[in-house]
Amino acid sequence: MNSPSTGGTAANPDDLLILLAVARTGRFTTAAESLGLNHTTVSRRIAALEKALGGRTLARTVGGWELTDLGRRAVRAAEDVETAVATIVAGDEDADKIAGVVRISATDGFSAFIIAPAVAQLRRKHPKLSVEIVNVTRRALQHRSGLDLEVVVGEPQVHRAEAIRLGDYTLGMYASRRYLDEFGTPSGVAELGAHGLVYFVDSMLQVDDLDAPRRLVPGMSDALSSTNVFVHVEATRAGAGIGFLPCYMADRHPDLVRLLPGDFAERLPYWMVLRPDSLRQPAVAAVAQALRNRTAAVQEALLGAEVLES
After folding, report:
1. For position 34, what pLDDT does the model report?
2. Quick one: pLDDT band at residue 172, thresholds 50, 70, 90?
3. With 59 labelled, which of 164, 242, 294, 303 sits at a CA distance of 20 to 30 A?
């Protein structure tokens, strides 16, 4: 195989576009589906590209395929090819560069309260933009194959990535009015031990910053646990127990009462994590900026009414 310094045969632009698809999806099979090819063809064309460039463009990781340094340079060239093709297809009209698929990993609540309205507004100006959201509550990945950006709770410890703090939100204890009428309103932290907790499944919780209930009131037994924060809210409203909920979600329901805000006001940050090359893509950059704008616009709601009044 030729070394990168000597150069090989000229790289095929079609192969560059195939590499771009793999870089964006992290998997040969997914890239093949998006291109209308089969997995074998994608693998063969990547091999041909690497032979032409004189080095490896992709490295296998636990999460999929990641670009090498040579691969990142090749992808930048592929993006230029993609832009040129889009300009030809658009004819005399200016091609909208904010187009294509942007893939995001984020928590349930953030996705609904921040991402959904931010993307809806962005798509009014850029209708060719498509956003895919994978809902999960976890630490930032070290290898984010197939993802353009992640939103996580707590400061991420990542390498070769761009980390941007979006803003803070507050978690508080809540119960339904009907539940409090039936079981009484706790007057202090000690009395919470007699009530069941509605929160995440402890054994599956991957974010240390979300351990506040078990840390502050270890005497509370688990009443209903779920990996989905919308389940927490609805279970609390239904009277399954006392929920430790994001204030921006709970405060929207008049049947929920904030309990002991002086003792329970866990303030946590949302961070956005991107691959170093992601912001070079106009669509990803536009979505990232839209999330920053939306988070800033609703910061008061994220912090919670009780915190703002205290």
Report:
1. 80
2. very high
3. 164
Average pLDDT over residues 133-155: 78
> Which run of H or E residues covers position 104?
strand 100-106
Strand partners, 305: none
- Inter-CA distances, 243 with 98, 176, 239, Å: 40, 9, 9
In this model, does residue 227 exceed pLDDT 80? yes
User: What totals of helices (H) and strands (E) does the chain contain, helices first?
Assistant: 13, 11
The predicted model scores a pTM of 0.75
Q: What SS3 state is found at 161?
A: coil
Mean pLDDT calculated for residue range 80-86: 76
Question: 273 CB contacts (<8 Å, ≥6 apart)?
Answer: 140, 141, 144, 149, 150, 151, 152, 156, 158, 161, 162, 163, 164
Indicate if the pLDDT at residue 310 is higher than 50.
no
Do 278 and 162 contact (CB within 8 A), yes or no?
Answer: yes
For residues 69 and 300, give the distance between their C-alpha atoms in angstroms, rounded to a whole number: 42
From CA 276, how far away is CA 287, in angstroms rounded?
Answer: 15
Helix (H, G, I), strand (E, B) or coil at 275: coil
Write down the pLDDT at residue 143.
55
HEC string of 220-252 equals CEEEEECCCHHHHHHHHHCCCCEEEEEHHHHCC
